[in-house]
Design brief:
With 193 residues, the protein is mainly alpha-helical. The protein is built from nine helices and no strands. Helix 3 runs antiparallel to helix 4, helix 4 packs across helix 7 and helix 5 packs across helix 6.
């Protein structure tokens, strides 16, 4: 899987570089400016900016979770290798299991709070449509700098509602309230910064 994933990433990166090279070459034939961004060249519409921001947010959230959960994964791998070998003492197994639980829980909490820095991506672009994609990302990170924990608390308040979706409520009743509350909070944070 890792080999297939790395080949796919390499192909995507090469394709992106080819598109940028072709666009710059075409553009340089007429203007002669070497510092032109490919997004300026393509004149991306607002909808494509939103799609790009969503993809960027998904990738950054996944990387953030991977970064914060990596220590617990290492402990889990060490535990399994010790179990597979000559055996493991009960005390060592309990210590490793406890260490895994602590690292996993702490990593999950810190990752949830750290992911909130990308919480205002959509609203930053909606409030300022003239922003570039990088400008919206910078505005979102700046706005969420002091209020990441507030966004996390807002998501935590809806945990019970989502748990009730499994038993009682259909998801399409809860999701509009969740998205509306989150958008209102993000707009309030962006307008105050």
């Amino acid at each position: 899987y890792y080999a297939l994933f790395s080949v796919a990433v390499t192909i995507c990166f090469c394709f992106y570089q080819l598109v940028v090279y072709c666009l710059r070459r075409y553009y340089l034939l007429t203007v002669m400016d070497k510092n032109v961004s490919p997004f300026v060249l393509m004149k991306i519409s607002f909808q494509l900016k939103i799609i790009y921001i969503h993809l960027y947010g998904i990738v950054m959230r996944l990387l953030t979770f991977a970064f914060y959960l990596a220590p617990s994964a290492v402990v889990l791998v060490v535990t399994f290798f010790c179990l597979r070998g000559n055996g493991i003492y009960a005390v060592l197994f309990i210590m490793l299991a406890l260490l895994f639980a602590i690292l996993f829980t702490g990593g999950l909490c810190f990752a949830q709070v750290a992911v909130q820095r990308y919480a205002c991506l959509d609203e930053a672009l909606i409030l300022n449509p003239e922003f570039s994609v990088r400008g919206a990302i910078a505005k979102s990170r700046l706005a969420a700098k002091g209020s990441s924990f507030d966004f996390w608390k807002l998501k935590l308040w809806f945990t019970g509602w989502f748990a009730m979706c499994v038993l009682l409520l259909p998801l399409f009743f809860v999701l509009p309230y969740y998205r509306g509350s989150f958008a209102a909070k993000a707009q309030a944070v962006l307008l105050n910064r």
